[in-house]
Specification:
The protein is of the alpha+beta class. Among the domains are: 12-133, Rossmann fold (3-Layer(aba) Sandwich); 194-244 and 415-485, Topoisomerase I, domain 3 (Distorted Sandwich); 253-336 and 357-409, Orthogonal Bundle (Topoisomerase I, domain 4); 633-714, no CATH class. It is 34% helix and 21% strand. The chain is built from 22 helices and 29 strands.
Amino acid sequence: MSTKSYNKSKTTLVIVESPAKCAKIESFLGANYRCVASFGHLRKLESLDDIDQYFNIKYKNDEKKEKQIDKLRREISQAQEVILATDDDREGEAIAWHICSLFDLPIQTTKRIIFHEITESAIQNAMMNPKTLDMNKVNSQQTRQVLDLMVGFKVSPVLWKYISSNGLSAGRCQTPALKIIYDNHTEIANHPGNTLYNTTGYFSGGIAFELNKEYDSETTMCEFLEKTCEHDHVFTRSDPKKVFKEPPQPLTTSRIQQLASNELHISPKETMKLCQTLYEEGYITYMRTDSKKYSAEFVENVKTYIIQNYNDKRYIHNEIDSLKNSMKRENDDNPSPPPEKTKSKTKKTKSESKKAKDPETDSEVKPQEAHEAIRPTHLEMRELGDNNDKIKAREKRMYKLIWETTLESCMAPAEYYSITANISAPMDAKYSHISELLDFLGWKIVANDKSLKDEKENKTYHRLNQIKQGISVKYNKITCKFVLKNLKQHYTEAKLVQLLEEKGIGRPSTFSMIVDKIQDKAYVKKEDIPGKRIVCKDFELEDDTISETETTREFGNEKNKLVIQQMGVVVMEFLYKHFNELFNYEYTSEMETILDKISKGEKVWTECCNTCLGEINGLIGKLKNVETENTPKTKSGKRSDKYEIQIDDTHSYIIGKYGPVIKCTLDPKKTMFLPVKKDIDISILEKGGYKLQDLVDPNAWTVSSKSGIGGINTNVLGTYEDQDLILKKGKFGLYVEWGENTKSLKVFGNRPIENITYNDVVKVLEETSPNATSNTVRNLTETISIRRGKFGDYIFYKNEKMFKPEFFKLNGFQGDYKSCDKNQLIAWINDTYHIY
């Protein structure tokens, strides 16, 4: 490994946040420049005790960063000049300010550079146009930090007092995000769906025509079919009309999170991690942005690329210039000299005005608004190669998504001709079929979106267009399918991000953290939701004969959705009742607006903090005034602060150390706990709508006695090999017993015993049994195989670095996983579960 030498007396030190940027930036700037990283924040604000009544803050050095602080101090002492190059957002500005404060760098004169992509031209332009710290942005970040601390340190202890001391928390943005999930949970409960019949008519040519009415009873449905036998079905058709399908919009932070979730099945947190790597490696622009604009230079490059690759100016959107960001580089009228001995020189952009204006509002463009949308830095690079060890398969897929979406956003709409064919029906109804004929691919050419489906649709269009207007047509078959409609759906992570943005809760840089936080606190879990199984009666009319078919179908099953847990419901209802003014959507959105105003110098940050503190103290004071009259009584007649719902004389529902449990008090000296079923409705529970046996889950482990409580043996997880499978804790840790067999469960490590389920234990038993090899259905690679389990076949994955294996479902694979092409199955597993 070669060692780079520096002339200490002439070295300019550039400080960034991430060490991954350093090598590239040094290569762009030359030998007299040294680039080091702060690794994020160097100081922290630990508690409200560090803030006085005037909001003077006493920061403490982060003990985890002491080595980095010492390194930066040495580097700064040996440098001729220090340039701050932290990220262009409030956190980045605050980190730069902390560096100045910690190392006694003059705030008014220390240079601050800004760039949104790690390319040579971007770095050179930033160096030629330095700024100084924007203290308004620093104040805004400081306000956000203080507000978050006040809410967390003042409201969370209230939850500990009145619900449970198990680490519950409230948060300025976390709680409104939980409220979104809670409100949807309530909507789902209030909308069980409507039972209806969907009717489809098949006439000549086998084209499916949908009836415009949905009947809600068998009687009405049969009446319609009987009248169909005598009805004269008349065909009509609309004139063709041109339909335009607009391209996708440029990628903002929230949009890339939503798109990656929907297209790649990647969480918002993982999306930001992948984008961070792509940014640091110089492949995309900065990934935290609200902007839907591109630089003028990039837009011109796109025009050239489209003409060169698609040979037709029609593919360029006729309003592409509206995507140009009008923001000019600050200080272009008085640029600093370029850095010494750089590899190349970049011409500076002439400024048309000292302060840029937004062309739509004629208002001054602020730094946050000046960001570009997320885009590739090198448009000619359609896909990433294998020449960078930091770029794996997932980064490649993310880059491809960004590249395609970016180019598509600059291209012309796809054009179709559309016709609507109608066929009359009895009871004032009609059948319809809309068909489209592709005329111009437009932006869809990027993904070569011209499939067999298009060809089939084109044939249908021509066939319908050739049928004479007003002629009578005969039905071949009419089908009436029973359906359960208008079911409310649980939200995906992508949908939650969208709603956070729409309601003004948080900022793009915090969306993924908010989504993670409500799951980390176990208020919400990402789960599969089983559907409702309903016996359905379908009808079919053929040759004037009505036939009936009964089948059992499932409606409303969902995959990987955010589901609020009982603890989340209890916490949310408590906070909604006592702290609604602090956590409602409007207040949270207004607070974000105030933070924006502080960042623009339009608000005094300490006034905002003081107002919020007064509101929090007022709400806590109100709660203390009513607690004596509303605090529930226990069986002994004493008042208890804690949340507790009495079930019977010896059992009550509480929030325990690891979540909801049933507390059983057999006598004053002996208290034990029973597990609670997952699907408990808190509102029904609070009204006394459950009996003990309705609440207790016998298939989950909880701390209890061997004999069980209330007639339920809570050690028994279920049955295995026709024996009770009993989870026990011995001198050497957890183990399981069935019949005369025992098995250590050290594989679970320090995992809380409350979280160990029957399925977890059975998989351990099957994978470690002497006959485990017989459970192998098919070996795919050294780390992946298909195994046979008690509940069906599943995917087994374990590499040499993993402490324990992971298990995945085969649901959704189209084909026979036992005999299909091995590479096809491996590719599906990789795409679905992102193992590599």
